[in-house]
Amino acid sequence: MNIHKNLANNRDFNKSKANFDSIYTQDDPREYYRVLYGLDYVIPDLAKAVFRQVASALAATRGRRLRVLDLGCSYGVNAALLKYPLDIDRVAGRYRELEFAGLESEAVTGFDRAYFASWPANEIEIVGLDISAPAVRYAEEAGLLDIGVVADLEARDLTPAEAEVVASVDLIISTGCIGYIGERTFARLLAAFGERKPWIASFVLRMFDFAPLESLLDREGFATEKMRGVTFVQRRFHSEGECAQALRQLRARGLDTAGKEEEGLMHAEFFLSRPAGEADDLSLEKLASITSGSNRAFGRRFSTLADDRLRFGR
After folding, report:
1. What is the rounded average pLDDT for all residues in the chain?
2. How far apart, in whole angstroms, are the C-alpha atoms of residue 110 and residue 287?
């Protein structure tokens, strides 16, 4: 395995990937949903069922209410879907309503706090970790996160207070941040835990090689299973450049893109990492069942013609 080559490939894709940095610096999620939902961002919906099944199995193992760490939580979309009987269509639709257009962020946050509080909540606590202070602050104030942590763990260690919060979680989830963050972040997270280690449920874009992180987890005493034979749509490609670079990177890794990225859609795979002793009794195949979301009606997107040219259309 050439880890340096893998990291270089990840950097190459990140250069061509659409730059959405500005949508994470707003004081409320209107722009976040406008941009990402406009690209048919569906991975939180597809991940929800898997996360709930994993959490249910873990709760039975631990025998108590769970605390979940959402890594790369942004504005708390995973928290909204895990805590409440909601889907991303309903949540994103709120921000298209005209009454939100002229409101200050403080008012939007207040309305959202009341809206989410009006739904019956599941018995689960969500800790969110992200580098965006405005996104974490909103998610806390809207009641989506029970605790928010603002940290770039690629750049620094956890503070003692942050490590204490992290050490209290039972399950770490992510829906697309792996590849942008990697072994440094996970090494720093895992250093916070004692003997009681969390389960780690990761949706990873196929452009990114999970092997280096899996090797780290193996050294830390985790057993990792991949959900075989299925991928999960994340969103449409934003541009021809993003699509073309992803196809080059996937093919360089020897992955078949037919029916997946060639159709103009970014696909992720699911990995579940558990302390080796807790992975023996229940396999991933018995623990969770899924649907791929491939029957969803998507907007105009890039797809591949017979001569490997890219076409933009339905």
Report:
1. 90
2. 38
Q: 10 Å Cβ neighbour count for 74?
A: 25
Task: Please name every residue paired with 233 in a beta bridge, in sequence order, or none if there are none.
Answer: 267
Q: In this structure, what token pair is assigned to residue 103?
A: 């409101």
Given a contact cutoff of 8 angstroms between Cβ atoms, the answer to whether 254 and 58 are in contact is no
Domains of the chain: 3-305 (3.40.50.150)
Strands (E), the chain: 66-71, 124-130, 147-150, 171-175, 199-205, 222-226, 232-236, 265-275, 301-304, 310-313
Instruction: Determine what percent of the chain is predicted with pLDDT higher than 90.
Output: 74
What is the C-alpha to C-alpha distance for residues 196 and 169, in angstroms, rounded to an integer? 10
Residues 243-272, mean pLDDT to the nearest whole number: 95
Strands 232-236 and 265-275, how do they pair? antiparallel
- Mean pLDDT of all residues in 56-68: 90
DSSP string, 2-42: -HHHHHHHHHHHHHHS---GGGGSSSSSHHHHHHHHTTT--
How far, in Å, are 146, 162, 195, 216 from residue 83 at the CA level? 11, 23, 28, 31
Structure tokens given for 256: 């078949």
225: nearest Cα among 175, 269, 185, 182: 269
The secondary structure of the chain in percent helix, strand, coil, rounded to multiples of 5, reads: 40, 20, 40
Residues contacting residue 298 through CB under 8 Å, at least 6 positions apart = 40, 236, 264, 265
